[in-house]
Amino acid sequence: MLPRCQWFEFNELPWMPDALKHAITRSITFDQWFQGCFRGELPRRFARWLHRTNASTVVDIGSGSGGPVLTLVHALRKQGIDPPNFRLTDLYPDTHRLADISRRSPAWANGDTGYVSFSHEPVDALADPIAPGYDYFTLINIAHHFPPKLLTRILANIVRQGRGVFVIDTYYRSPRFFSLMLASLLPSWVAPLFVRPFRLSHFLFGTLIPIVPFLVMHDGLATILRSYNPHEWHALIDSLPPNDYEWEIDRMPTGTVYIAGRKR
Does some domain include residue 38? Predict the structure, then answer.
C-alpha cells in the first residue's frame, strides 16, 4: 500500500500567479465532470443523507472556486434529485471567482448555480461558531489537503457544533489512478473552451501554451498521494472525542470515497 505523503499542489503555492491558480481550478472542475467522478450511486447516497438529516441548507467548508460543489449539484439534478442550498465558504474567499459562479455556469451545468450562494467573509472550520445558524456541513474534495491531526480537529469541531456532515474525496490512495492523471492532459487542454465565463488567460496558458494541463496533472498526482483510504477514515472517525453521531464510510466503484455522519 502506498504511504500517505503530504505533497504540495501548485494551486496552493503563494507565489503562483492568480491567473494560473484560477486556470488550474477551472480545469480540475472540468476534468472531474469529464471523468464522471460524482456519477452513479454517490448522488443517491448523498440524497439519503439529506433525507435522514432533513438538511435543506448546508455549509461547504473550503469551497475554493466552488467547482466541486457545482459538479455534485449537476450530478444530483441529472438523477432527478433536488439539491439542497449550498453556502460556499472558505478561509480565504476569492469573492471575484465565487461571484462568477453566482452569475454563470460551466457550459455543461446550466441552472445549477441557482443552488449555491457564497460567504464574502472568511469562514474558519476551527472557529466557534463555524457558521452561525447552520447545522449541516460538507467537505467536498478538500479533506485531502489537511494532515491527519488538523483534519481530526476540523471534524471534531463540526461534530461538536453541527447535526450532520458529509465528506467527499474524489480519489483514494492507489496506483490505479496514476494513469487517470496522465489522461487528464486532454480534458485540461480543452477545458478553456467549455468553462464559463471564458477567460483569455485560461485559454492562453491552458490551450495555446499548454502549461496548465501539466500543472493539473501534477496536482492530481499530489491529490492521490495525500488522499485517505477508507481504513484511515475509520481510524480518524474512531479518534474523535465521544459523540452521538452515527457514521457511514464507503468507496464507490469510481474511486470516490464518502463519509456520512449524522446526529442520532
Answer: yes
Asked if the model's pLDDT at residue 183 lies above 60, the reply is yes
The pTM (predicted TM-score) of the whole model is 0.91
Parent domain of 254: 10-263
Residue 35 phi, psi dihedral angles, 5° rounding:
-75, -15
Distance CA 152, CA 148 (A): 6
Q: Residue 73's domain is classified under what CATH number?
A: 3.40.50.150
Count how many domains the chain has.
1
| pLDDT level of residue 174 (50, 70, 90 thresholds) | confident
- Per-residue pLDDT tens over the stretch 201-226: 999 999 999 999 999 999 989 999 99
Q: Is 86 within a domain? A: yes
- Is residue 56 a part of any domain in this protein? yes
| 1 domain residue, yes or no | no
- Rounded mean pLDDT of 235-264? 94
